[in-house]
Amino acid sequence: MAYNLLKGKRGIITGALDANSIAWKVAEKAHEEGATFVLTNAPIAMRMGEIKKLAEQTGSEIVPADATNVDELTTLFTRSQEILGGKIDFVLHSIGMSVNIRKNIPYTESNYEYFMKGIDVSAMSFHKMLAVAKKLDAISEWGSVVALTYMAAQRTYPFYTDMADIKAMLESIARSFGYHYGLDKKVRINTVSQSPTKTTAGTGIKGFGDFYDYANAIAPLGNASAEDCANYCITLFSDLTRMVTMQNLFHDGGYSTTGVSNEVMQKLGVE
Ligand code: NAI
What is its EC number (predicted)? Predict the structure, then answer.
């Protein structure tokens, strides 16, 4: 059911790679809720062609941009305002990639070139995006920016390797930039810490399937789906959450505050 929560709002949605992507669901929901938006992804992801289907489905234009490239981000924010006819009201940062994870390199043996690449793509890109938007004054007052993160920023998950440190940086950027952008232009910046989700980025992590089941067995509500995550993002883009900023918001069915569950105890053979 749609509530017209984003009626008249203009947005930029990054990271929709295929129908499993969290960003894909956010785009579908934002469309249902009355928003108009530009879709963007790295030029290499564009070649896969899937994003064009989403653009057709939601009546959106695509502006390719490598999120590590300030010039391309400048074009993205400039073109998006032209296409949509005004300042941007909401931005989704849904970008994550670790070469160390892709290559199955253990955390203690991290390759530093890959580590730097991971930082640039998955965390610094958020700073760059915000800095470009602020310089261009491209986001309207009370606009809302959301980036997706994972709880490995607070607690250790050995298989999440360098992405744990990178997500900690991402969350810190939301707080640091959130202060400055909030003070100057009342722009809100938050991170949503999402349950394990079966996407290209998610399933690329070693042992993801078992871990997904483990988290599902801990969380009293079970794992939050990509669609649930999209719904939560929509509320954060809406005017109903206008005083929420600089927060890391857990969206995980209660996982992050559950010590252990009966289900897991039973699996361990404890009565
Ligand atoms: P996904 O693989 O569908 O999305 C990742 C996106 O990042 C892709 O669209 C990819 O093309 C884009 N990307 C990579 N390098 C880029 C670059 N240089 N410039 C622009 N875009 C680039 O996977 P998913 O899961 O939807 O990931 C979205 C976000 O959600 C990521 O930040 C991820 O870390 C986060 N997240 C995912 C969880 C999961 O279990 N899947 C759990 C918690 C957070």
Answer: 1.3.1.9
CA 152 – CA 208 distance, rounded (Å): 13
CA–CA gap between residue 124 and residue 117 (Å, rounded)? 10
- C-beta of 42 in contact with ligand 1 (< 6 A): yes
DSSP state of 195: P
Closest ligand 1 atom, residue 208 Cα: 40
Identity (one letter) of the amino acid at 149? Answer: T
Q: Residue 48: helix, strand or coil by DSSP?
A: coil
Q: Are 2 and 32 in contact (CB under 8 A)?
A: yes
pLDDT, tens only, 130-180: 999 999 999 999 999 999 999 999 999 999 999 999 999 999 999 999 999
Measured from the CB, is residue 69 less than 6 Å from ligand 1?
no
Buried b (16+ CB within 10 A) or exposed e, 177-209: bbeebeeebebbbbbbbbbbbebebbeebeebe
Structure tokens at 139: 């986001």
CB of 21 closer than 6 A to ligand 1? Answer: yes
- CA–centroid distance, residue 269 to ligand 1 (Å): 37
Closest CA to 69 of 51, 95, 36: 95
pLDDT digits over 196-209, tens only?
Answer: 999 988 888 888 88
Ligand 1: residue of 12, 13, 20, 21 to mutate (most ligand atoms within 8 A of CB) is 21
In this prediction the pTM is 0.98
